[in-house]
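Suppose you are handed a protein chain with no further information: no name, no annotation, nothing but its sequence. What can you learn? This example shows the usual starting point.
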Amino acid sequence: MVKCLSDGSSNGVVKRKEDNTCSATGGEPHSLGLTVVTDDLEGAKKRRFMVYICGGYKDTVAERSVLMESVFPRMYLYCKQRGYDFRMVDLRWGVGDPVSDRHDTAELHVEALTQCQKTLGPNFILFLGQKHEVQTLPSTISREVFEAIVSVVERDRQKMSKRKHPEMDDIISDSQSNIATGSDTGSFVPEHNDDHDSGDPAQNSGLMSDESSVSHNSLSDADETWVSPAGTRCWADFDRDLILLQTWYRLDENCVPAVYRLLPVSTQQPDFLSRDGERRRQARKAWHATCLLLWGVLQRSGTEALGGEVASHLLRTVLDCEVEQGLRSLGTEAPPEEHCHCYKRVIPDLHHSLRNEHAAHYIDLLKGRPQVNRTLNAAHQSFVDRIHKKLRHTNIYERNVDWGIKGLNPKHNRSHQFYTEHISSHFQRTVINSLNKVMKGNKAKGSFDIRRREASRMRIQEEIRRHVNHGHTLENNHVLREGFLGEMRRAVEEGSSPRPILLLGPPGWGKSTTMARVAHLAPSWITGAVKVLVCFVGLTGESRNVRLVLQNLCVQLAETYSHHTELSEGLPQLVNEFHSLLGQLRADSPVILVLDGLDDLSEEHGADLSWLSTPLPPHVHLVLSATTDSACAHTLQKSAQPTVLSLPPLSPDDITKALEHKLQADHRRLQDWQWQLLLQACLSCPSPVYLEAVYAESVLWTSFSPQGSLGLPPDLGGLYVGLLACLERAHGEQLVARAAAVISLSRGGVTEEELLDLMGRDGKVLQEISLSHSSCTSSSSLPRVPCVLWARLRRDLGGHLTEAETDGTWVYRWTHSELGRVCVKRYLKTDDSRKLLHATYADYFRGTDSQHRNIFQPLAWTLEEDSTKSYVFNLRKLHGLPYHLVRSGQILSFLSECVFNYEFLLHKAWGLSVLHIQEDLKGAVLPEKELVDMEVLAATLELSRPVLLQDPCQLASQVIGRLGQIVAEDLPVAPGDPQKFSYLHDLLAQCARSSLPVLVPSYSCLVPPGGIPHTLLAGHASTVTALTRGQRGLVAATCGGDGTLKVWDLELGRAVRTLEGAGGVVGDSLTLCLEDRVLVVRMGQSLQVREVDSGKVIYCESDSLDVPVVTTACDGQLLVAFYDGSHLVKVFDLASSCCLLCCVNITLDCDPIHKDHSILVSHNSIKDYVLFAYRSGGQAAVFSARGGAVLSVLRAQHGAASIQGVEMTDQYLLLFCRYPYKQDSEIVHIELFSTASFEYQRSVLGCSQDYISQVTVNRAGTHVVAFCSSPLTGITQVVTWNLETEDHKHIARFPGILTAGVCLELRFCVGVCSGERYLRLWDLSSRINDQTLTYNVHKVKMDGTEEVILMGKHPRYAVCRSLRPGTVRVWNLARSRFAGRPVRVEHGLYGNTDVALVHDLKLYILTDRGTANFTDTPSPIFQTLLVYDLIKRSYVRRQSGLYIVPCPQHEYRLLEGQLLLGLSETRRERFSYLKQAPANLVHYLKHHTPNTVPLRPR
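A reasonable first move is to predict its three-dimensional structure. Written in structure tokens, the prediction is:
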């Protein structure tokens, strides 16, 4: 039943598959619940270049080092500037030989090379010298080959034993004792190696590999003379050979077919893994000697048993394996010249310098003699010849270089330095030329904004692709729980109700795999053209942000069901658009949303799940998964009321089936006792992740493993603890601890460059490497942590580690979060240790201790080409620096380096969006108290968000334009006092020094923060053209530019009903009638009446020449249409199928002034009353809808009035009148008339700053809300009037020109701005009682009182003139309840040059100051008198054409009989009496004495 291995029998070597799970590099995964990511080959090729560097361990150090040190940073920068990742992989850098405990170096190197070959461009660079590569031993040998070699040894031994001399017994005994296990080292140590100098300089040139993951073991240069058989061999030599083979190679029958496996070095040399450097060095020395003997045996006997060619292939070096793989083309038929390059170095005078102590590093010499080892030299020449046959000469670059005293040493020899520089420049040109062929076709065109939008779109598409590919990977390997899938199918088929399905299970229970299987099978469970949208939360860093998850789902829905839809980026808007898009689904095109792992959502937006609690529309199936007993699961069960399905444990049949499937796929078998051990462990913890992990552990079992040495913990946590303990023994405790901690605390994963750098910053790791590896060197030219150490650890982690794409690069993260929790518990036990590692992360992103900071850690990589500057943003830094600063507790650094660092904010808003900055601000926890700077900056970014989403480069303009005045006014109260803002001063100074050319405002020209914020309600796919409010409840209705009608529940903040457009009608006016059951849509001259529930059109009119202006009466039962441009009025009864009640022509005393938009109507109605007026006219009328007649005409209180709006409450009929005010100015009054008697009641004064465009009244009738838009500034103000207290407030300001606005309650004030797809929602109740916003507030201002005048006829009242010109207050002196506050305040009644006199609660204002030219000497005069009644709150008289001599205010007196006493123009000779009506001169009175003035008239 078990399939045999197809390879291995021909060459005698069997490659052992160490792990069965898929890594990010590819391969065939066999996952049963592990979240394993496998990017497809084409996806991996797109944006990543990987170049594999190889060459001899000893003789090519100079060339390889200069590439890694000098060329790699330049190439990295070159690729990053163009939006690509670049890596150079040299597993020999910092390593002296390929020794490892498990003899898997070749496999490790080939796997790394294969990963590089999955990318485009040149991926294999070979350096050749004149020295043969270090010889290695095969890790596995097929049974047939090994037994053939043993047969040859036994045959030769038998032949020799027949000629054995009697005296040979003592020799045999001595020989056997020499190869027996020594008491000190426990290993086979030939005596002739006792004086071997293990401190050879060649060994000290790099770090030794540890035991986990290198392919073959090696022989040292000093022992190469033992390779060639020489002299006479005795029977004892063959006996020793046989013992060596049988001791170090054991038959492993767990492989199919069985193989002989080379035992780990530590089995016979325990000190090989010792943390004692000296003991490890001795064990290493002993292994070299043993390895030498084994290689000699295989060479001699293998040649005779297999033939020279097969034996040579059996004993091939690591470099042989690399070249064989490197010259292949992975996945294509391209010739090797497309991706392979070879640099061949020749030292012509090397043969004349063989006595030099460094010569052995560059050519093979005989032991102890300055002579070339001809055997190895011939092997090397044969190796070079094979390369010439496979690779064209155009890709082989030969260079000659002279020998130096210290060998090839660029640091001490100029010619050698020139040689390495030439190699570097040639390598760089060659690689760049190849890469440009790939990059040229991917260059984005157009302006930067276009490129930025395109890049954003591509990121979303690639994110979607990764989730789809991941789902296919998991689904293809699903072999479990077929019975439970039937239960899932029934739940989906019965899911006609809008309830989601929630799949719950403990960690590692296989939820992701089951969800992937559901996504694959669900289309066959439901009829119609089913669309499946899938998201595996946590698969990438972006998928942990709920906003980005929603954005991806909306993009997929829009592309399928609503083309050309422009989507938002904010979470609240995306929620509305998500439900709006779902509402567009049809019965024949259902959609299934599969969202896995919702409890992995990050803290942005508090992992908001409210959007999943909304009832689903028909034809939408929502399948969710979360961990049992998680906070997310409890939230979903409480809010969404889902159908809950619990994932059952694996059944014994499932476990047996899965294990057998894996063994068969991996060509393995287990011994009976091993099978029982594995099976019982899986039964004790029936979890797919546990099954996957223990099976990966069983792959390391051999048939000769001692029964008592194997054991499996009964739970997943214990298994992970055991795994970490094994890794610590194999790789070093500090190395494993640091790597695990770095991965566990990363933000969504860690790149290889980050990991190596962060490990190198730990002194304990460096000390452990130095002590554990005898070949460690402190040379500055070598890496602190060789990448091969991480490569071996990564290989041993196998499927527990996943490579995923995030932030535009590739990162490593734990496959399952449970391992991360175990690592944190094991290695980061305290908060201080976690904060310290976060701080180290932050230092890395800052670029500290880095000589290439501008290359590896800039905010963005910039490139100037063709007079165009392009940017590629460092998303790892933009995301990582604030993340780790906050978690390390460095709040002050977070504020200074991120939040109030202009360049950081600019690059983050540019490379990501301003929304990411706002998420950073929300996620920061400040110590002790709130920082005012943070609040102000957050409010500023909220106001500027629409602009910055379109053009982030306006950040400086927006910040200065909004905060300039606020910051300028922040001055210390006294010298030495602190300023209010600690950081904003510096931020604005940075904005003025922006790295980009920006328009810097010279003053605060934009709306500053501090007003009432508004909420954006999204849902329309196009511009909103009309808005109305409902008659019942908190309901509003809107129309989009595509004709779509939406009914909104403002309390829920989303659309609850969508009606498709009918007849191509795009409404420019809407009206909800008949208790919100009927919607009236007007488009130009067309009128359409539709039912809200069914969308049915019940009345349609399109033949009118005039535009109907629509309102309702009788609680929405009657529809009243005034036809603009004519006197026609139609009344329809909506309760009677919209039948026409009456059609009349009405006229007023005055004709309309305007041709278009001439009719103003009230939107509220009392009884059957409709209040209407002609715009800019002076009168309004009350129309009876049922009677079809005008009941009363209301006239403004002054002929100069211009009516701008009309409305109605239960008590008042409201006329909004504009009056001329001062010079070139106007003022708005609200004139109130009784709804019972139609009589004038009073006026409510506004201010001269009001320019009313939309008027609405709240349902309670207490407040008037008006929207004042200014086309000049592009700013709209929200102003209110309290009809009871007459307070007038400018309550909010916002950028934009409002086209429609309604107010249901003060909590729900809604408006629509020109060209926007959103509704803006304000909560005015939060500031409606804020007296600082009031323009005519009834309390004493701190401006002082200039004069107090008692009212003679009204002794209870006193009038105070303020020091502020134009302000007058009326006080009630008798009523205690008015103590401390005036009963009336009037503002703006007169100016600085006017004279205001008070008499009997009337204000007499002398104004219109001019010059009298009819006198001999031109003199100033007052030409106009205004009389303002403080009781009626209106002007009662205006008289012009006067001749009143100006005097100071205190020199005028008002007398009884409407007389005004004042001085003449000469002031010394006479007084004058002026009679106010008709305001002419009455008397002159001359002085009698200089000091006495009789004021009594004649």
